[in-house]
Amino acid sequence: QRIIGIMGALPEEINGVVNLLQNKEEHRIGKRIYYTGTINNQSVIVVYSRIGKVAAAATVSTLILKFNITELIFTGVAGGIASDLKIGDIVLGTELVQHDMDASPLFPEFEIPLIGKSHFKSDKDLLQLGENSIQQILENSYLHQVIEEKYLDQFNIHHPKLHLGLIASGDQFFKNSTQKNKLLTVLPATKCVEMEGAAVAQICYEFDIPFIIIRTISDEADQHSTIDFMKFTEKISNIYSIEIIKNIIK
Length: 250
Ligand code: ADE
Known about the structure:
Blueprint: E1 4-8, H1 11-18, E2 22-29, E3 32-39, E4 42-48, H2 53-65, E5 71-80, E6 90-98, E7 119-121, H3 124-140, H4 142-155, E8 162-169, H5 177-186, E9 190-194, H6 197-206, E10 211-219, H7 225-235, H8 237-249
Parallel strand pairs: 1-4, 1-5, 5-10, 6-8, 8-9
Antiparallel strand pairs: 2-3, 3-4, 5-9, 6-7, 6-10
Bound molecules: adenine.
């Protein structure tokens, strides 16, 4: 029997999904609330970890060890790094890397010491499922309608696109182009940055739990990122999470 962990960093990224739960129950562990229940008769556990790699790693460990999840879906926002990413686009992380891990010269930059890896791959089947579900949403759903009606001008969102590629995570909020350009010189394939995905990926790898990380671009990781991030998370990140999770579970 499948038990799906659904995780985000902030309440704004996950509350909408909590509201979808049938037979909802709350479990308090380690100053977090884990909501168990079903969506479309599928058992799920939904939780927000709070921001950062440590918070995310602790939360996913609890999902694995206490709630016996068989797979994990992470949904939330990210700062766009690649120049073709626009606010409102969605990124499926094919691979995740911790951009602030550097134990050189003992280990190569970015490598997780004693694991011998720097990049963690999302599960192939979940990626395929995620790709199909998200393409479908972007083509014809309510999400699109809401964005067009309410938010098109505000966020300058044109037709949102799906991108697949590398996501870089670290305990840093990107707020200027210097940070962004520095990252692009060391990890040029990076699509977007956030603060949890690669920590989740490492723990899932260590416990053999298939996962996918799905990120909506809330800002362009530049001097406007703080304002854009706050507006986007307040107003639309939940709409994206709800539509994405509903469609994937279906
Ligand atoms: N998540 C969303 N926007 C971000 C940014 N600019 N830096 C890091 N994480 C983010």
